[in-house]
Structures are given as structure tokens and as C-alpha cells.
Here is the input.
Amino acid sequence: MAYEEWHNIPIPLNVTKESKKVLSFRLKGKAYFLASHDNQYYAGYLKCPHAGGDLSRGIILESGEIVCPLHRYAFDLKTGRSKEGFCIEHFPVKVENGNLMIGFKKRGWFNF
Ligand code: FES
Here is the structure.
């Protein structure tokens, strides 16, 4: 799937390398979490799809899952899915020219 719109994540790269925590940021009026695991970055909407828990207060397991602090559902960072059937809306992250970038699908006039 092509991600045609890439935006700068307003978190310096060195901050992510110095921190093991999940971070949060806002972009275009929406809130996201940023996590890293095994030298990969992951981003998704900040609110848990189960009941709105703040995923930036979650923890990352060795298995590559982010655990929501509210009811402890674990979401796979690669797929966004939990065993309970919920799914985080997540986005690709890349490093370009020393900056973290988040990718969005380009929306046409017919997308809502
Ligand atoms: S709000 Fe995240 S698991 Fe319930």
C-alpha cells in the first residue's frame, strides 16, 4: 500500500533514542503515540480503541506489543491487533534526513 503523504513527527530523533518510554505527539489536530522496538518505530492514534486509554502511558513488551495502561490489552505493534479483537489504527514511520516521518494514505475527494 502506498503512503503518499509523509509528515515530520515533532519529536527529535535523539529523544527517542534516549527514552525507552512511549512518547506522544500532536499533528494536524490529532494525537498519536510513538514507540520503538527492535530498531523500528511505530506510530498510531493515542487513544486505545477499547475504551480510550492513553497508549503513551503504556509499556512495550519484548514480544513487540504495546500494553494499554487501562485494561492491559496488548496490541501487536506491527499489525495493531489485540487478542481481544481490537485494533489500533497505526501508521508507518521512517527516518529521513535525521527526522522522524509519519506516513498517511493520500485521501481523495471520495474518502471520508
Ligand atoms: S482502554 Fe485500552 S485496554 Fe481498555
Notes: Residues 48, 50-53, 68, 70-71, 73 surround FE2/S2 (inorganic) cluster (CB under 6 Å).
